[in-house]
Amino acid sequence: MKVFVTGATGVMGRSAVRALQLAGHSVVGLARDDAKAAALSDEGVEPVRARLFDIESLAEAFAECTVVCNMATCVPVGSQAFRPRAWRAHDRIRSEGSRIVVAAARRAGVQRVVQESVSVIYADAGDEWIDEHSPVAVNGAVEPAVMAEAHAEEFGCASRDWIVLRFGAIVGDDALTSWRLSRARSGHAVGFGDPQSWTSVVHPDDVGSSVLAALSAPSGTYNVGAQPVRRQELVEAFAQAVGRVQGRYASRVLERMGGERVELLTRSQRVSSDALMQAAAWKPLHGRFGVHWLTQPSRQVVGAR
């Protein structure tokens, strides 16, 4: 199958590319410039020059592709993530970019669209389990993700399929995790919210394994993550990984100052990924979080489903 991946050089896109290639699929990637094109070629991906916000060039790029996986993001890392303007590019990619991707896919005759999203859109549920039918709590920080989901769903019809993958927080071999490890090493806070609250995490490898599973799943929205963990376990793992006795949490004052984006990080979300497991026989490569996620490189093998 010929699969187009937007954001193919990012954390999620690279994982998707590896999983698709290992399963024998031909992968095409969006390249904005020569450097991106060269990077894609080095990974065995066919680079296509196009612009994410240009429906004409995208539709041409999607030609002959059966599936489009929209993994494009621009998540700011580090202290800049707490600056509202830093999220403008990311929010535009999710809201406007996803609409154009879907329109271009429809024009090109693509049969299936897979759209990335996030599980933090769910409302705080305490200790209760969360599934795809649980209430969401939309604020300005997650509204672009909700818009992207709506655009994907609008793609669906009798002859076209749509998939939304709501990912937990990516923890592993990625820039944000590296930054948090650096914070922990320096004795700074890496945790938010109640230590006994729940959070959903996903290993980078399982972004790819779930995208692969999404190629055969019925149209719909699916959560993607390992077994949920209490924040205390997550923060302690970061401390252990850098040789610290104890991890630290941000103060309530700092959480309030952080606004809507930090509020997302304090929600208790015990998210279940059973639906994707049942619908597409997906099984995460990393089903349970542990400190080894922070100390061992990613792996990806055939049979990721």
Uncertain spans: 301-305
Task: Estimate percent helicity.
Answer: 25-40%
CATH superfamily of the domain at 2-170 and 203-225 and 271-286: NAD(P)-binding Rossmann-like Domain
Strand order of the largest sheet: 3-2-1-4-5-7-11
Organism: uncultured Nocardioidaceae bacterium
InterPro entries: NAD(P)-bd_dom, NAD(P)-bd_dom_sf, NAD(P)-dependent_oxidoreduct
Domain NAD(P)-binding: 7-182
Protein name: NAD(P)-binding domain-containing protein
Can you characterise this structure?
- By secondary structure, this protein is α/β, with parallel strands linked by helices.
- The protein has a domain at 2-170 and 203-225 and 271-286: Rossmann fold.
- The protein has helices spanning 11-22, 34-42, 55-62, 88-108, 143-155, 175-185, 204-214, 231-241, 252-257, 259-264, 274-280, 292-295, and strands at 2-6, 26-31, 46-49, 67-70, 112-118, 129-130, 161-167, 169-170, 198-199, 201-202, 220-224, 229-230, 270-271.
- Helix 1 (11-22) crosses helix 7, helix 3 packs across helix 4 and helix 4 runs parallel beside helix 5 (143-155).
- Mean pLDDT is 95; it is low at 301-305.
Quick structural gist:
Helices cover 39% and strands 16% of the residues.
